[in-house]
Amino acid sequence: MRVFILTLLSILLGSVGVAQEESTSTKDFSLSSNKHKFFFFWGYNRSVYAKNDITWKGPGYNFTLSNVEGTDLPQNGFGENYYNPTLFTIPQFNIRVGFFLNDKYAIAAGWDHMKYRTKNGSTARFSGNIDPSVSSHPDISTDYGSLVNGDFATIDNFYLKMEHSDGFNVLNFNLERHDVLYSIFEEKLGLKLVSGIGLGVAMPWTNSKTFGIRNDDRPHFSGMGAQVFLAPELMLCNRFFVRTTLQGGFASMWDIAITPKSDKSDTHAEQTIWYLERSLVLGYRFHIFKPKS
Fold first, then answer.
1. Residue 162 backbone class (left: φ over 0; alpha: ψ -120 to 50; beta: rest)
2. Using alpha carbons only, what angle is made at residue 224 by residues 223 and 227, rounded to the nearest 5 degrees?
3. 27-65 CB burial, b ≥16 within 10 A, e <16
4. Nearest to 260 by CA among 292, 220, 230
5. Would you write out the chain's pLDDT as a tens digit for each of its 293 residues?
6. Beta bridge partners of 281
7. Looking at residue 216, what DSSP letter applies?
8. 31 three-state secondary structure
9. 3-state secondary structure string, 98-122?
């Protein structure tokens, strides 16, 4: 993961160097002049999640917990994880690369590295069936095997949890609209409003437990989703920008990996997560090729 991001950064920085040599016109880099430019940003996010249903399917069980509460997993304080290049993929981050089709519209692709975990101690309504032989555990007060439809179960993350903590990763493909709201100093400084819609590919890196058995953490294609967003953007010196985004979306995941890699059975979980994400990112706008005059 870190190698991928560092490689992408080195390519982008090289492109920026070429861009600076090829395009030095102040007018060309006004806020309203965007056609055929690229942009890149990196930043961090927090998310809140609507209550959702989670279904577990495997040998001896097929059940759903309804209205499950979930939380994100932020880092405590502004520590080394935010500025050490070998650690900065640990927090909840956003990365994006985009290309302007014209002065107002751009396409972008990126990665929202959110995190999700079921809230320990919360309750959810049970439906389905569990064979008691697969759910017994001496350290758990709740006997999931004895539950019947309509019962309330207590979430115990030691025993039964859904946690996308190495990433509730959503690969985004967006269409953006850029509108200049205000500018000064010949458009060297100004405020824009960015809005857009997109499709998402869910690639969670899931750290789950099913009746005390932990799965092997690994990224896994699990489903699809969509998102909409609105973002005020402060442009600085024509090229740099600070963007704060409010994004709402969902990911419908029908094949979440919940077993060790060696388990070849048709065991999986299903979950649709609705989220509201807020992020703060720093970005740069540049040319890769010299625009035609």
1. beta
2. 145
3. eebbbebbebbbbbbbbbbebebeebebbbbbeebebbb
4. 220
5. 555 455 545 544 444 444 444 444 445 667 888 999 999 999 999 999 999 999 999 999 999 999 999 999 987 666 666 666 666 677 899 999 999 999 999 999 999 999 999 999 999 999 999 988 887 666 665 677 788 899 999 998 888 999 998 899 999 999 999 999 999 988 889 999 999 999 999 999 999 998 888 887 788 899 999 999 999 999 998 899 999 999 999 999 999 999 887 777 789 999 999 999 999 999 999 988 765 65
6. 43, 243
7. P
8. coil
9. EEECCCCEEEEEEEEEEEEEECCCC
Place of tokens 């972008």: 108
- Given a contact cutoff of 8 angstroms between Cβ atoms, the answer to whether 151 and 125 are in contact is yes
CA distance between the termini of the chain:
40
Could you tell me the two tokens for 289?
Answer: 């090729």
How many whole angstroms separate alpha carbon 218 and alpha carbon 253? 15
CA distances from 265 to 15, 257, 258 (A): 47, 11, 11
Two structure tokens written together for 198: 């997109």
Domain boundaries, the chain: 2-286
User: Tokens 């981050």 identify what position?
Assistant: 93
Distance CA 72, CA 43 (A): 16
Q: Which two tokens stand for residue 275?
A: 């989220």
Question: Does domain 2-286 sit in CATH 2.40.160.20?
Answer: yes
In order of 25, 54, 173, the CA distances from 125 in angstroms are 62, 11, 35
CB 123 within 8 A of CB 154: yes
The side-by-side arrangement of strands in the sheet containing 209-210 is 160-161, 209-210, 213-214
Is residue 16 within 8 Å of residue 32, measured between CB atoms?
Answer: no
